[in-house]
Each structure stands twice: as structure tokens, then as C-alpha cells.
Amino acid sequence: MIVTVSSSRTLRRSLVLGAALAAFCAVPAQAQPRQATVQIAAQSLGTALEALARQTGTDILFAPQLVAGMSGPSLSGRMDAMAAVERLIQGKPLAVRRQGNGALLVVAAPAAPQETVASGGVEVAPDIIVTGYAASLSGALAEKRKATNVVDVVKAEDIGKFPAQNIAEALQRVPGVSIVRDRGEGVFVRIRGLGANFQVVTLNGRSAAVNENVRDSGQSGRQFRFDTLPSELMSAVEVIKSPRADLAEGGIGGIVNLQTFRPIDLKKPVLALSATASSPRLADTVDPRLSGMASWVNEEGTFGALIAAVYDERTTRQDRVTGVGWADGRIDTDGDGTLDSDTILVPTSTRPTLERENRDRIGLNGAIQWKPDDRFELNVDGLWSRLNIDYDELTYSTDFSATTPGAIVPGTAVIENGVLTAATVNTSTQIGRETSRLEYENWLIGANAKWSANGWTLAADASLGRAYSNTPTPIYRTRLLGSVGQVAFDYGKVGERLPNLEFLTADLTESTTLPGRRIEYRVNDSLDRQRAATFDVTRELSGVVHALRFGAKYEKRDRTYNRRDINFTSGIAGQRFDDSYFEAFPVDDFLNGVGGNLPTNWVMPDPDRFWDAATGKEALLDAPLTRGDRRNSYAIDERIIGGYGMAEFSLPLGGVTIRGDAGLRYAYTRQTSSGYADNGSAALPVSYERNYGNFLPSLNLVAEFTSNLQMHLAASKVITRPSLADLAPRLTINSNPTVLTAVGGNPELRPFEAWQYDGTVEWYFAPGSALIGGAFYKDITTFVFQQTRNFDLDGQIYRLTAPQNGGNAYVAGIEIAYQQLFKMLPAPFDGLGFQANYTHTKSKGTYALSDGTTFRDDLTDVAGDSFNLTAFYEKGPVGARASYSWRGKVLRDVGGAGLAANNDAAFGSLDFDISYKVTPNVTFVVQGINVAGGVQWQYVRDDRFAGYTDYGTTLMAGVRARF
Ligand SMILES: [Ca+2]
User: Fold this and answer.
1) What is the distance in A from the centroid of ligand 1 to the CA of 424?
2) Which of 637, 643, 641, 635 is nearest to 669 (CA)?
3) Ligand 1: centre distance to CA 426 (Å)
4) How far is the CA of 742 from the centre of ligand 1 (A)?
5) 926, 954 Cβ separation under 8 angstroms
6) Which CATH number do you get for residue 110?
7) Which of 70, 100, 127 finishes a domain?
8) Euclidean distance between the first and the last CA atom of the chain, given in angstroms as a whole number
9) Residue 775 falls within a domain, yes or no?
10) The pTM is what?
11) Which residue, 230, 336, 663, 666, is the most exposed by fewest CB within 10 angstroms?
């Protein structure tokens, strides 16, 4: 892909889309028609040509001195860019020609040649060519500028070359976006501090089905896993921060729209291949990644087909100290059996963990595009992906009983600033190994047709999606548990070292140190099916309102979640097992390179041997589902009928052009949630139906003050539907004789509702360059939080803990982004570029304690400060880029009820990408992720250790070819 940018001295390039858009034309529903609505005031010809380029999405090249002093007439109506230029230059000594790349070149008319322009215009070819990363940045910036709403775009540099191996990792460089990693790989994105369940993810504008976390029970049903889709299949990803009435509702954080490639938009037949080998430092292996894309289009450019495939393997290793608990308590310092300290913060547990994982992923994408003329277009797309994860997790967990009278060896307790930092204490330890294979499958197929005639455009879209997540190999947790006598612990400060844990009387590498406990067995699956149909009508008008849009959408989603747990204890519990039941610890450098003295290898149970030792398995496996299994399973059916109307307008106001859209969307949601309520003796099926409707107005305004300064303002009402797990009507009664308690979901939950406001000021001071400042505010009025209340069941009052609406929260922030291509510098420095952004976010939300009282604290996982820096150089065959992404500390758990709030310390990742083009078709690439070896620390209070994660550095080398 090549975007041509002319130098400011000889030619001024009309900023905006240009070839970038042409090469990566998006969703058909949003694709640029060749005819566009043009609304241009009488003004200087140069400014008019720039405005025309923006409005039509066409590159228009001209020499400023050629048009200096000329003015153009006002122009409005529907026309193509060529016809519009002809009308603007009518009667002037100018001519226009279409170039091979689709750009329009305005030159002196042949009859009156000017000395600065040679005849034929060939020599006036753009003198600067932007390719690669700079081109993707220029194209992305152009889309942001053109949009009426607040949007950020990440574009592929070329076919199969998204600017990061992982979609989430590319999105983290967008202002206001951060990512959540799982074992080093970006899985979820957070937009403006709001978690993955607060965003809607669409694929080519269509709602995607959502895979579920089946490794542990953390789930929401609305968190799209970005690791399931390979980045090579994406042509662009849009982060839509302010909605329009014609876009899917549901994202208070924002909408992420993933766009795949379309064959006619690629303009010519293309074959692209790549092969990469990556080596994660900690895992010490070499993993392949192969991708190929073939796209064909006929000579007329009216029919095309595309197929793409990606296969990759990934080995990960993550060294952690996790499960670090701190709680308020009193201790017995002198061993006399009486608690004698003040209430202090006491460590309760620590769990060193080695996580190893092998992932393999296949992604396939196919597209057929038919565009017989400007009036009709048909697109059929399909995408399928499958991710398999085999994992093996080894842990030992120390559980201190420091608050038990007599537990601490007298004289060993060290208390610093109200925190017990060191002591020798009786300890129980659990050694565990967890293994499983997880499978995530996701597909989406859709068809879209669009007709345009006489100022009307009708578009229809139908899609079908399915996400299946399951455990083809059940989750086995093989556990040993027992007392290990005295352990001396000494917790240091966060960032300095890991805790010291000295087992004074037990050896964790000895097979008989701990007796068996049990094998925990779990099977878990989730099926999410999504069907949608949309119909959109656009009426083009001339005048201030240049388009009216109406549409309707029907969406049906059904989801089942099933979980079954069995504990096998017979033949295991209390038994001591000899060496033949264990394997050698697999690595000899666990937690290397960080201070702290704690056991770094221990006996590793062989799950097969323990499985053989367990007795009575058949009876348990054949038994019917237990009450607990039923309570943990649910089904939700969600039907949404939506409609919208909106107007797009553009008007000159003084010297300022105001454009934008205003609209109203209505969504009616009907939910049926089915599950089991447990009355203390049986789990009984229950089903609830809930209906609600939401009117969602939105307004987006752009004020264009000059040809390079504009402002966006947006206000809208938005909703996010509750987590499906929270909606499940499950209820669990604990018939404890003293306190009757219950926990449950809440099928009565209403959606989160928010008003949100956005403003940006954007200065496009040079081609491909901009300085942008923005602010946002989101006022969430129906925040959902866990609350405990009295609940009457058959005349008995229970203390029920369940999610409730009723809290409120806000998120506010500022975002500053700067990017510049240093085209004005003399060679070779004109290949330099720089990109930076900074986000500052503030938030508060309501939380509840189990006694019913509420408190306010920051929203969890919202970084107060974050920044990204990218420097790059592209010249001739050489490309190099280094990126640093940093975010400040975040609140991870609010704590409460005697438990300490837990925080993630600041974290930064340095990544690089170097490429060398050996022939015009073949490029060698070397990449590194987290090359500075950043590690994640967690802490409680100001600086007390609460967790450590190191996923290491990954280096990659590969070759890409394009024909
Ligand atoms: Ca005492």
C-alpha cells in the first residue's frame, strides 16, 4: 500500500483518505460510494479542493502556486470527485487527470502550460512517497479527521501486516485504550478505563459471538477475546468512542469494529505469504507462524474473491507469585496464647506458580465481492478461527495462621507501620498441578447487499455467528495438602524483591512431605449463538441536511453455560505417595533474576498416576449432575429489536464549516434467563423474563475552523447490558444454623446507563501529522455492584448477596495525541516519524460491604495515567520502529471486609520491529516484544508486596512476500 504525500513546497496533498482508504475500503455499509455528497462554499480554489478531497475521500494533488489567487464556485449535490473538480476549475487555465492510483491531479491546461508544470504531468508526480507504518498512520489519521464522531483507527500496513502480532497489543497504542494480558498475550481491551464487558465488538459492522473463559469461573458473557482472531486477517480496527445512531448500542466504553480485507478494494490480484519463527525467552522453544492470503479481482474490477489462512503456535511460560492475601487481624507476639497486638495488616497466604502453555490457532477468512456498477454491491464474508490451549500450572500455596493465638514463634514477629512483615509461624501448604486443554472456536458469516439509485440507498445485511468454548480435556487439579510446620516469612517492599519463605522443618522436594488431598475435575462449556438482520435506508439530499438515514435491526442471541465439578478423594486423601507418583520439576530457573529467597522447585504430581490411584471414579462420573453443577449452569436468550433515524448535515457558519449528525436510536431488549435456584435441599429450575427499552439520542458535531484545524463535540446516551453471569437466576442457600445466607445472580438487573460527552481539538499541521487534545466524561447512573440485603424465601429471612443496580460511577479524562512525519527534514532524516499519546483518567464508583453499607472508591483496573511513545524510521528498503507503552498503577481489587485493597504497580513494555526489503517483493523482519523485560508487581497499602508476574521477552524473525 502506498499513500502519496506531496511536499508542501511543490504540491499540497489534499489530506485525507486517498489511497489508504481505497486500498482498505471498509464495510460495504460504510464504504465510500464513487458518488459522494459534496457541499462546498464559494472560497479560494485551494481550500475548496481540499474540502472536496475530504468529502469525496479522493486524493487531489495540486501545486499551491498554480491555483494561488483563484477562487472556486459553491458546489452542492451528489457527484463524483472528477466531475466536482471539473466544475470547480471550469473557465480556468487548469485541467484534471486521473492517475493510476486513483488520485486526481490538477495541472495547468495544455493550452497554457506553465513553467513549473511539465506537460503531461508526469514530472509532477508526488515527490514524496509514504509507505509502511507511516502510510498506515496517515490513513488512520485521515479517517479520524473525516469521521463525524470521535474515532481512532489502527490500519494494517499491508496485506497480512497489522502493526502488532496481536490485535489487542496494537490497540493499546490508541489513546485511552489499555489491554488485559493473559499469560503475556493481550486478550481484552479496556476503553477509557471501562472493562471488556463495557464494549461492543463487531466484525465488519456485525455483532460477533463471544467466547467464554472456561479455565476458571470468571466470566461475563460480553467480553470479546481478541486472542481468538489472528491480526493478519484484519485490514483495520476502529475504536469508536462516541456512537452514532446507526451503530450497535451496548458499549459505554466504546465500539471496536474489526475489518477484514475485501478483494475489489485491493484493486488487483494479490498473493501475500509470511513465515515467522518466534522464541519466547522463558519457554526456550521456537514457534512457527504462517499466513497466506490470495485475492483475485477481474480486469473490470467488478468481481473479486479472497481467501486467507493463518496458523500459529505459541509457547508461553509465566513465572508468578500470586494468591498473596493480606487481611486485618491481631497477633500473639509472645506466644502466651493471647492476641496482644493492635489490629494490623497480616499476610495470610502466598502462592508461587509456574504456568506453561502451548497454544495453536488457525484462522480462515473468505470474501466474495461483486460490484457490477456504481449502483449495486454484494459482499459475502466468512471467518472461522480455532484456538487450542494446552496448559500446565504448578503451584505451592503457603497458608499462614498468623492470627491464631500461639501460632507465631515468640520474638519473631516484625511489625512495621502497622504491617506484620516477618515472622516464623506454623503453616499448611498445598502443592497443586492443574492441566487441561481448552478449545475456543468462533465463526461469523454474513452477506450484505446495497443498492443505490436516484439519491436512495438501500442496504440489507444478514449474519450468523457462533462461539463455542469448552474443555475437550477436562480440567484436572491434582492436590496434596498438609501441615509443614514452621515457616519463616519475610515480606519485602514491592519492586525490590520477592518474599523470603524458609521452610524450617519440611522439604517440598521430598515426595512424602505432604499427603494427598484430592483431584478436582471440571468440565465446562459455553455456546454463544448470534443471528442478526439489519436494513438501512439512506436518502441523499441537497442543502444543509445532506442525508437522512433510517434503519432497523433484529438480533437474537442465545447462550448456554454448563459446568460440572467432581472431587475425587477416595484413594487420594491422606495417602502418602512415593517418587513414582511425581515428575521432576521442569525448569531450573524459576523466578530467576529477581531477589527473594523461596523454594523454586518442588515435587510435581503426575496427574495420570494420581488418576489411577483414585478409586470410585466411575460411580462419581456416572452420577447425575449435583445441585452445585446445576446452580453453576444457566441459559440466556436475548432478543433485541432496534431502530434509528438520523440526519447528516453540513453548513457554513461564518468562516467555519459545521458538519455532523444527530439521531435517535431505540433498542427493545427481551431477556429470558433460565437456571437453578437451590432452596437448601434441591436445585429447582427457574426462568425469568425481563423486557426493557432504551431511547438513545446522539449528536456529533465537527467544526472546521481552517483547512487544518477542527473540533469534534459529541454527546450521547449509551447503555451496556449486564453481564450474563450476573443475570443468571441462580440462587444458593447456605443453611448455616446461626446466619441464613444466600448468594445469587439477579435476572432483574437493568442495563448500565450513561450519558457521555466528548470534545477534541485537532490540528493537522502537516501531511500525516497532527496534534490532538481531547476530554471525555461518562456519567453512569445505574452502576451494578454486589450488595447484601434481606431476602424472604418461604417465610425465612436470608442475607442474600447478589448484584444490584443502584450505584453510580463516573469516568472522566483527557487524551493528548501527537504524531508527525518528518518529511521536511533533509534525506536521510525524512524517513523519521514519531507518535505519542498520553491519557489521564479519573473515576469513582459505588461499592458495597457485606453489612449493607456502601463506599466510594476508584473503579478497578482504571489507570490514572498512561502513555505510548513510538519512534520509527522508514527509508528505502529499511524500516525500524520502537514502541514503549506504559501505564501507571491501577486498583485491582477494592478490598473491604477486612481484606486489603490490591493494586497493580506501573508497568511498561518496550517492543521493536525492524524490516529490510531484499527485493521489491520480499521483506525480512525481526521483532521483539517486552524486550526490556518488564515485570508486573502488585502491592497492598503503599508498598507491600502482593504479587509478581514475569512473562518474559519474545523475539521473532521471519520473512514476508507479496506478489
Ligand atoms: Ca500474647
Assistant:
1) 15
2) 641
3) 16
4) 37
5) no
6) 3.55.50.30
7) 127
8) 12
9) yes
10) 0.83
11) 336
